[in-house]
Each structure stands twice: as C-alpha cells, then as structure tokens.
Amino acid sequence: MTPEPTAPAFDSDVEAAIRENHPALITYITAGDPSLEDTKAYVEALDRGGSDLIELGLPFSEPIAEGPTIQGAINRALEAGTTPAGFFDLIDDLETDAPLLVMTYYNMILQFGNSEAPCASNSNSEAPRASNSDAASLRNEPTVGPFVERAAEAGLSGIIVPDLPAEEADPLRTACDEHGIDLVFIVAPTTEGERLDRIMSQVSGFAYVQARLGTTGARANVSTATHESLSRLSDYDVPKAVGFGVSEGDHAAEIIEAGADGVIVGSALVDIIADHGAGGAPAADALESKVRELKRGAVRGGDATTDEEQPEPEHP
Amino acid sequence: MSTDDHESDTRRDADGTFGEYGGQYVPEALMPALQELEDAYERYVLDNEDGFMDEFRERMRDFGGRPTPLQRADRLSERYGREIYLKREDLLHGGAHKLNNALGQVLLAKYMGKERIIAETGAGQHGTATAMAAAHLEMPCEIYMGRTDINRQRPNVYRMRMNGAEVNPVTAGSGTLKEAINETMRDWATTVERTHYVIGSVVGPHPFPKLVREFQSVIGAEARKQVREQAGRLPDSVVACAGGGSNTMGSFHEFVPDESVALYAVEAGGSSLEIDTESGVAPNSATLSTGTDGVLHGAMTKLLQSREGQIVESHSVSAGLDYAGVGPELSHLVDTGRVTPANVDDDDALNGFHRLSELEGIIPALESSHALGYLEEYHDDLGDLVVVTVSGRGDKDLETVLEETEKRDLEAAPDVEVFDR
C-alpha cells in the first residue's frame, strides 16, 4: 500500500490533539452545573482559553472517585435535572476546536437507551409477594452499545469511566472500536507490572495518569507519586496526561517537565463555576483566563524539557 | 450435586462472577488491593494458612459465643401447625450476625499486615460489630456513618465510641448507608496501602461477596447440623431477611446444594413497591423482587434505579434493610430460581416484631421481623419443617418500634403504657 502523504498523522482525534499541541492542556467540567445552558457557555470559554481537549462529566448519583468539589458539581447538575438525553443534545449543539470526551460512571453507560419503564412500575403489590417469574420479566438487559453509538453520533471523541478497570472493559472497548471512539484508562500510583501492561495495551487516546492516591480535587503541590508514575510509563508509546490535584500553572509546568504530554485540570475549574453561582459571563471569563494560565504553565514546562533534552520531533 | 462440587464452583472460581452478576467495577487505584485480598482469602480463609481459620473459630467461640442455638419455637409451631425452628443469631455477641463477618475480616486484615480498619455502617450494627472486633484485636478503627443515620441510631454511635472507634459523619446526599459506602470507598482509595475496608455485607467488588459469605456461612452450617440432630431431617424451607444479604447468604449457603430445601429471601416492602419517579425515591428496598440489573458499589447486581441509571433512595422501617442494592450471588440465585424473593411491608414486619416478642419472649431486630412477618402470611407454602433466621435482637429498635406502632393500628401490638396507670 502506498502511504498517502496527506493522511492524518494519527487515527485518533484525541491522540492528535495531544501530540500536535504538545504540551497539552485537558480541562474538565461537569455538564449541567449549574445548568446545561451554562455548560455550553463554559465549554466555549474553555475552548477559547486554549484547552486542547475538553472532558465533560455526565453526572451519576454515586460518584465514588470524586472529591468534595466535583461531588458538589454533580449534585448541582442532578438537582438541575441533567439527563443523558439532555447531555447529548448539548454535545450536538457544541462546536469546539478541542475534541470532546465524556467522563461518566459505568452504570450510566449500561442503562442508556433503556426503553422499559423504571423498575417496579409494573409489579402489583396486591399480587402474592413471592414469585420467580416476576423477577425474570422485570430484567432489563444493560448494554454499552446504545451509549457509544449516541456518543459517536454526537461527535464525542473519547470516553473515560473511573469505575471501569481494564479487567471489566472488554465490552466497552469493543463498542468503542466499532464506533471509532477512544477509551481512556486511568493509571493509578498502585498500578504496576502485568496490570500496567494490560491497561496500556487496551488504552487509546491517552493514558490518564492519576497523580496521587485518593479522589479528585485541587491540591497545593505536585506529588512524588506523579514523578514515579511517569517514569514507570516512560517506555510506553501512548501519550500521558496527569490529573487529580492539578490546580495551578506552576503544577502544569512541573508535570510537563517530569515527562508528561499533558495535564488535566478539573476541580480548580469547577471551583470557579461554584464561586460564581448560577449563570453568566463572569464565570466564563474567569474560566477562560484560568485556562490561559494553565496552558502557559504547561508550555513553560515543555520549553524547559526542550532546552534540557532537545528530543527528536515527536512525529513528522 | 455434591457438596464438594458446589464448593469448587463458588469458593474458588477466580473471575469473581455469579452468572452475569458480580465483578470488580472500582477505580483502578483499588484493583491491586482487591487482588491482594483475593490472595489472602484463598490462603488464609480457604487453605487455613498459619491456622487462620482455627484462630477465627476459636475467637468466635470464646469472644463471640458460637455456636448459637437452633431453638424450636413452641408457640409459633402451635400457631402455624408445623415445626418452626429459630436460628438464634440474636444471641451472638453484639446482638446480631454481623460479628461473624466483622471479626473474620479484622482478623484477616491483621494477618495481611494492615494497620488500620475502616468500615461503613447504616443502622450501626455493622459499625458496632467492627468496632468491637477492632478493639478485641487491637486495631485502630474508623467508621463512616450518614448524618441522618447518626441522628436516628444514637445508642449505636455511643457503642462504637465506647469501643474506641472514630465515627466520621457523612453529610452527602440523604446521609444514609449508600453515601456512607461511597465515602468509605473514597477513604480506601486514598489509604489503600495500609488500610483494610471491612465491607458489611455480601456486596461490593470481588472478592468481598465471597469473603463475607464465607464468614457468614457458619449460620447455615450450624443450622443444618442442628436441625438434623433435633428434628431428624433437613427442613422443607429456610427463611431469612435480605437487605444487602449477608445473613441471607449466611443462612442459605450450606443449603443451596440441598435441592429439597426451599430458600426464601424476605426483603423490605416498605410502604409501597412503586418507585416515585418524580422524587427518585423507592419507598421500599425490595431489590430482588423489583430491581433491575446494573452496577453499584463495585458489582453488577440488581438495583433500585431510575431508567437513566441514577440510584434511587430506598426506604424501610428497618434501617438495616434500607439499601438500593443487594449481593450479586443472591441476584444470581434468584434468576436461576434457587432462591425465592419475597417481601413484607412495614406493617407486617412490625406485627412480626410484636408477635415474636409476645409469644416467644424474644425481641427480634426489625430486619429479622420481616422474615417473621412472611411466616405469618405464607406459612402454608413453607412445608412442615421451617428454619427462620433471627438475624439480630431488637433492643436497638425499641424507639423506632414505639414511634411507628403509635402511628398504626397493628393487630399484634400490645398496650405498652405503664406510666399512666
């Protein structure tokens, strides 16, 4: 086969966004906090400020990987009535330079597209209170296909699922491959050896390097675990982006200097949204300038790396 | 099916699933800890390495008071015209079956070299059992408990504090068990390297459903032996209440291969089986009877959830049954038809509470009262010889029972007023 000179350098939008904008800034906010209309304005501000990728959280009622900041955002979004259908309508409407990813919990993916009424609605409390056939007839068939299909149709480029380890990910990996969507996995400070190999063989787009043990949330410094994780990952040819606790431009600089291809910032942005309350341009402006600060920090870290090492260009 | 076949099926299979249920749906950071726990489960619990199971059984005897009796309930037997036996887990130290699992896991954590214990609690029974076990084995212990539950279960909060445990209030959401589990998982994801999470039921990611069931299966193992000695044969049915399902699986496990023994898991029907879709509340916790398949707290199982996949708030007069999920193995046994799901509403559970108290001189936990309520309504379906698990004693529930009884016109409720006489 003759190589096409004009062929895209990467078959993944997500990987391209990181490689071509190296060092990359990935930003996160929760969709529907405080409303989906506000989210639209905020995503546009993140895009204007220079985000290279944007993650949108689809809220789930039991966010076990999140710290208090993003839990708060998810509660506000759920109280505002955010649904998967409304979320996808928002994605349909958005036009951004940065590719978009969805971050949500596995049950939200499994239940999407259920046509049945909620459980129990067709059970009859007058009926005998013991029966096997009732239970069988009430079974839904949770499956990942409809969610991934709708995500692809809306133009999402990737999916991140914080409660889906590689061991359980085969169905979603297959569906993502069918629809040309990246599936990003989280690599924790505790991930080593065979499990690390397994994750790195299943990941696409980028590896989400968890900077420290625990939950999401802005922190005052960069952990030593970040440096250790990045050195464990240095032999794998997948872009690495570091998240969990990154809140300032200086963190971004230090992380890029330590060998990351990108930084992920969430809680620091969600804090801005929470501080501004419902609606409006002030929050969007504040988000945009925070994103500029973070991107400048990342670039500063990238310059330091280039000065020291003069690496080969990453790609033609 | 022989017992050996059954055990090789369900005790050692490595993938941690029960049919389509179970699995390990947790943040990546916890996966190595689950592998470590699975390894410890096989070595210490299944293979008795370093005499772990010997020490566990000895401590359950001397500290816990095992074996618990299987008692023929003479007046219930007369009332229902069949042989009714009660498995008296209410007589275990702490007043409930919870110690079987808590002591087992705290001891296991010690064998694994962990330095700190955390646990969630809803009504406070698992929290108090864990605090007792941690004090007994000299382990630092922190319990996460929803703010709402703290306010309605004060005696249990004090019991935990007396035993030296920290009690951390959880204010998120409705401040009940579901939120307490979320927060304990967050702590564990932060401290996993030296901390063990003592999960309180046969729920959560593999290997917890198997590990907890293994520690609780002493209930059914004893009952099976005792009923054969006392009644000369296996029972026609075993009835146990089900919330998360630890006393249920504990009671059933040894009987699963006995195909002639019918198994009834009695859930909380609450005030209604309908979900209020507007408020996102299910005024029941009848997960096995009415739930749909999904992922919660690390496992695929039956859940009370909205069509979109949000978990709904459950409700029961019994705080210990008040949970929107259920153990994955129970979900599987219900789908295969081996276990029959049933439910009893708040009123019938309260009647069951009063009836056992008055007829047999045993004040049962409100959780256990659901199994007794089922017996009253459906004893004709249960055969001639029935074992009912009394999972705990009801002292902890007296305030709730007085309050809830006052609101209702219950056939079995006595007049408890003495002060005005």
Automatic annotation (TrEMBL), chain A:
Pathway terms, separated by semicolons: Amino-acid biosynthesis; L-tryptophan biosynthesis; L-tryptophan from chorismate: step 5/5
Catalytic activity: (1S,2R)-1-C-(indol-3-yl)glycerol 3-phosphate + L-serine = D-glyceraldehyde 3-phosphate + L-tryptophan + H2O
Molecular-function GO terms, alphabetical: tryptophan synthase activity
Top-level enzyme category: lyase
Keywords: Amino-acid biosynthesis, Aromatic amino acid biosynthesis, Lyase, Tryptophan biosynthesis
Acidic residues bias locations: 305-316
Positions with biased composition (Polar residues): 120-135
Signal peptide: none
InterPro entries: Aldolase_TIM, RibuloseP-bd_barrel, Trp_synthase_alpha_AS, Trp_synthase_suA
CDD domains according to UniProt: Tryptophan_synthase_alpha (cd04724)
Residues at the catalytic site: E55 (proton acceptor), E66 (proton acceptor)
Region (Disordered): 117-142, 295-316
EC number of this enzyme: 4.2.1.20
Membrane-spanning ranges: none
GO cellular component: cytosol
Matches recorded under Pfam families: Trp_syntA
Superkingdom field: Archaea
Purpose: The alpha subunit is responsible for the aldol cleavage of indoleglycerol phosphate to indole and glyceraldehyde 3-phosphate.
Quaternary context: Tetramer of two alpha and two beta chains.
Similarity section: Belongs to the TrpA family.
NCBIfam families per the UniProt record, alphabetical: trpA (TIGR00262)
Name by which UniProt lists this protein: Tryptophan synthase alpha chain
Species name: Salinadaptatus halalkaliphilus
Designated gene of the protein: trpA
TrEMBL record, chain B:
GO CC field: cytoplasm
Domain of life per record: Archaea
Catalytic activity: (1S,2R)-1-C-(indol-3-yl)glycerol 3-phosphate + L-serine = D-glyceraldehyde 3-phosphate + L-tryptophan + H2O
Cofactor (UniProt): pyridoxal 5'-phosphate
EC number(s) given by UniProt: 4.2.1.20
Enzyme category, top tier: lyase
GO molecular function, one term: tryptophan synthase activity
Gene3D superfamilies: 3.40.50.1100
CDD domains the record matches: Trp-synth_B (cd06446)
All residue ranges annotated as the Tryptophan synthase beta chain-like PALP domain in the record: 64-392
Pathway participation: Amino-acid biosynthesis; L-tryptophan biosynthesis; L-tryptophan from chorismate: step 5/5
N6-(pyridoxal phosphate)lysine carried by residues: K98
Keywords, alphabetical: Amino-acid biosynthesis, Aromatic amino acid biosynthesis, Lyase, Pyridoxal phosphate, Tryptophan biosynthesis
Assembly behavior: Tetramer of two alpha and two beta chains.
Family annotation (PANTHER family): TRYPTOPHAN SYNTHASE, TRYPTOPHAN SYNTHASE-RELATED
Family under the similarity heading: Belongs to the TrpB family.
Functional note: The beta subunit is responsible for the synthesis of L-tryptophan from indole and L-serine.
The protein, known as: Tryptophan synthase beta chain
Species of provenance: Salinadaptatus halalkaliphilus
